[in-house]
Amino acid sequence: MKYAVITGTSKGLGASIAKLLMEASVHVIGLARGTNQKLENANLPGSYQHYQVDLSDIEQTERTFREIISFLEDQPLDSLQLVQNAALVSPIEQAGKQSAKELTSHVHVNLLTPMVVTNLWLDLLRDLDIPLVLVNITSGAANRSVYGWNAYGSTKAGLDRYTDTVALEQDKLKTGNKVFLFDPSIMDTDMQGQIRSADPSQFVDVEQFKNYKKEDKLRSTEVVAKVLVDRLLDEKSIKNGDYFSVKDILK
Ligand SMILES: NC(=O)c1ccc[n+]([C@@H]2O[C@H](COP(=O)([O-])OP(=O)(O)OC[C@H]3O[C@@H](n4cnc5c(N)ncnc54)[C@H](OP(=O)(O)O)[C@@H]3O)[C@@H](O)[C@H]2O)c1
């Protein structure tokens, strides 16, 4: 059976990736603080199992992933994919006006948790006789500085470097595992709503992002998720160390 573990499935891109994989008979394990009744009640070829967890809490996250991995070890696995999608954009604010608490949560969810989970995943699943597929969701913000997004740009840039380095290690170790990045570009989600609600003193480009919404420039998560899921369902097409953007496929 095919299994996928996806973080951030209560809404947005993560929920759409989960649904499309379930339509393709993949058994999905989703994580978020909230739940997703639609996925839990969906009548699709693949099943859905949800873990409510705060991914900013490293101990809770490690405990939950140990539980998930021990469940998976008892399953007949034909393929196993991990999609690290959960992230937050806040605090949107110039440096000098943020709280340490907000910054800590931000760095945990966007960067430290994906590192801790990757480490655990590669360690505990080392002896599996199938190659692992692991995709981290990045953002164009990793590659450009945006006023007010100092935390978000930094954690996404860190995630890019981390993912690329792990891919290099897996290559040298000849594990056959495939680790790559996916950039979904701008999508119509709660995260964009939060961006639009920022004060111009916190985020100088706020008008531009309000216009993206007005001018219908934000892609739906279903459309973006399909691009990633098409690739996930064709494992041979995945290149270890790849950086893959929705814009490579949808112009
Ligand atoms: N939207 C865009 O335009 C855009 C652009 C480029 C990249 N991205 C990236 O795409 C990915 C998905 O973004 P999205 O727009 O779908 O975001 P979203 O609608 O805000 O959803 C974020 C998901 O992450 C989960 N999450 C956040 N904090 C969490 C925590 N502490 N513990 C557990 N789960 C947590 C949320 O669940 P709960 O709140 O229920 O916990 C939710 O399921 C992110 O990596 C984002 O950086 C988005």
TrEMBL record:
> Which Pfam families is this protein grouped with?
adh_short (PF00106)
Extract one GO cellular component term from the record: cytoplasm
What the entry lists under Gene3D superfamilies is as follows: NAD(P)-binding Rossmann-like Domain
Q: List the subcellular locations.
A: Cytoplasm
GO MF entries: sepiapterin reductase (NADP+) activity
Which keywords appear in this protein's UniProt record, sorted alphabetically?
Cytoplasm, NADP, Oxidoreductase
Q: Which domain of life is it from?
A: Bacteria
Q: Which GO BP annotation is one of this protein's?
A: tetrahydrobiopterin biosynthetic process
- Note the PROSITE patterns from the entry: ADH_SHORT
**UniProt cross-references to InterPro entries, sorted A to Z:** Biopterin_syn/organic_redct, NAD(P)-bd_dom_sf, Sc_DH/Rdtase_CS, SDR_fam
Family in the record? Belongs to the short-chain dehydrogenases/reductases (SDR) family.
Under which name does UniProt file this protein? Oxidoreductase
Supply the source organism for this entry: Gracilibacillus boraciitolerans JCM 21714
Organism classification: Bacteria, Bacillati, Bacillota, Bacilli, Bacillales
